[in-house]
């Protein structure tokens, strides 16, 4: 029996197809939202962060971030409250509807879709069943107020200066910073199924806090860009850099290929200026989910000027294709061992798979539902 029950209206689906972004309210019930918030606070407290006393404890967030505080993204993967959200039935059903509406799940060719004016539906992974899929175990976001982040960072720098005055640096003192506009895919290889560890065409997070105003640490995105992505990828200008000649010392400006590191692509302020201007704040209520096409440039606001922390759980799903089945096998191995997933931002590869990297994890025994067992790969579909 299909698990794809209608959660979204046709208007919502049409909005996603047009904008590449969709906010869906009330994905979590009031009880589920409270349980998630309680679970987050307990998890942070386990790591030394008291959400009621950030002034004295938020410095512990630094050890949970492998991105130097970028976007408040924390390397916390497996607490039970997160796994509940990652296997939420309504969240998965909404994703299934969006897969079915926005992707060529019957393996249509790019030429066929171009003729139909639907090139944005193309992907190189062939036919797949939208009734099946897998959870992608991701991080969570906890972005504290910028004022607090700066004050804690300033105290830390002052302490370092007193110990090592010659080695300290005053730049970027805040313990958290923004996550600048980027793509979580590589434009150069987007249509090549062999150059990626996973295929995650729709990204998602569930918000545990209200984030309705700009400059409060929230989600920003360039609505509709997925429809221009393929043309932009082909015409993307190179980066211009200044290079110094080793012998003469003379400086010259040269063009180099536009950067793409793994599955991360930085949107450049100068060469991609027109895209930067498209990136706008997306209002989100607590308990809501935000879905976006992975060709949409997105960011985390430059500052959190509010008095409250912004909290989200990243929780996408992976379609049932060969690349993702291979990925899920590795993911469940990491889950069972309580170590961080091998993924694009952490740089843990096959040859280093025995690295002990579970120091920051709070290992719990989670009771999966039947759907959850299928989504994580313990039970076959």
Give the helices and strands, then pairings:
Blueprint: H1 10-19, E1 21-24, H2 30-46, H3 54-57, E2 73-74, H4 80-86, H5 89-102, H6 110-115, E3 133-135, E4 140-143, H7 146-163, E5 179-183, E6 202-207, E7 219-222, H8 229-235, E8 239-244, E9 251-256, E10 265-266, H9 273-276, E11 279-281, E12 289-293, E13 298-300, E14 310-314, E15 317-319, H10 322-337, H11 370-376
Number of DSSP-assigned strands: 15
The secondary-structure element order is HEHHEHHHEEHEEEHEEEHEEEEEHH
Please tally the helical runs, counting DSSP H or I stretches of 4 or more residues.
11
Instruction: Give the distance, in angstroms, between the N- and C-terminal Cα atoms.
Output: 11 Å
Average pLDDT confidence is: 90
Annotated CATH topology: Jelly Rolls
Radius of gyration: 21 Å
Backbone structural class: alpha+beta
Taken together, the total number of domains comes to 1
Name the poorly predicted regions.
Answer: 347-360
What is the CATH architecture term? Sandwich
**Beta-strand content bin:** 15-25%
CATH class: Mainly Beta
Question: Helix coverage percent of residues?
Answer: 25-40%
Largest sheet: 6 strands, antiparallel
Please state the overall shape, judged from the principal axes of the Cα atoms: globular
- Assign the CATH superfamily: q2cbj1_9rhob like domain
Strand order of the largest sheet: 1-12-6-14-4-2
Report a brief summary of the structure:
Helices cover 29% and strands 16% of the residues.
Describe this structure as you would to a colleague.
This protein is 29% helix and 16% strand. With 381 residues, the protein is α+β, with helices and mostly antiparallel strands. It has a single domain, classed as Jelly Rolls (Sandwich). The longest helix has 18 residues, at 146-163. The N and C termini lie close together (11 Å).
């Amino acid at each position: 029996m299909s698990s794809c029950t209608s959660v979204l209206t046709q208007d919502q689906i049409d909005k996603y197809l047009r904008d590449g972004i969709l906010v869906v309210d009330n994905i979590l019930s009031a009880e589920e939202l409270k349980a998630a918030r309680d679970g987050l606070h307990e998890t942070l407290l386990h790591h030394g962060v008291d959400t009621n006393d950030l002034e004295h404890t938020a410095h512990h967030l630094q050890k949970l971030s492998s991105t130097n505080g970028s976007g408040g993204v924390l390397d916390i993967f497996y607490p039970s409250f997160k796994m509940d959200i990652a296997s939420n039935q309504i969240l998965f059903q909404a994703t299934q509807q969006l897969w079915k509406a926005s992707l060529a799940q019957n393996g249509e060719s790019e030429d066929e879709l171009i003729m139909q004016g639907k090139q944005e539906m193309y992907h190189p992974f062939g036919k797949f069943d939208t009734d099946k899929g897998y959870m992608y175990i991701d991080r969570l976001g906890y972005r504290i107020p910028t004022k607090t982040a700066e004050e804690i960072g300033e105290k830390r720098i002052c302490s370092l200066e007193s110990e090592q005055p010659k080695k300290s640096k005053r730049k970027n003192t805040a313990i958290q910073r923004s996550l600048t506009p980027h793509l979580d895919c590589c434009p150069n290889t987007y249509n090549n199924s062999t150059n990626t560890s996973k295929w995650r065409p729709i990204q998602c997070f569930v918000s545990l806090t209200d984030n309705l105003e700009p400059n409060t640490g929230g989600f920003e995105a360039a609505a509709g860009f997925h429809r221009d992505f393929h043309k932009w990828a082909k015409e993307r200008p190179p980066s211009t850099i200044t290079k110094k000649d080793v012998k003469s010392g003379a400086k010259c400006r040269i063009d180099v290929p536009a950067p793409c590191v793994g599955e991360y692509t930085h949107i450049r302020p100068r060469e991609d200026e027109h895209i930067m201007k498209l990136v706008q704040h997306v209002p989100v209520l607590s308990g809501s989910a935000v879905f976006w096409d992975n060709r949409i440039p997105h960011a985390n606001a430059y500052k959190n000027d509010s008095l409250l922390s912004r909290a989200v759980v990243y929780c996408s799903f992976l379609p049932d294709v060969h690349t993702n089945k291979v990925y899920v096998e590795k993911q469940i191995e990491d889950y069972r061992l309580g170590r961080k997933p091998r993924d694009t931002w952490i740089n843990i590869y096959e040859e280093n798979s025995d690295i002990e990297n579970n120091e920051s994890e709070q290992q719990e025994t989670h009771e999966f539902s039947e759907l959850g067992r299928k989504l994580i790969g313990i039970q076959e579909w």
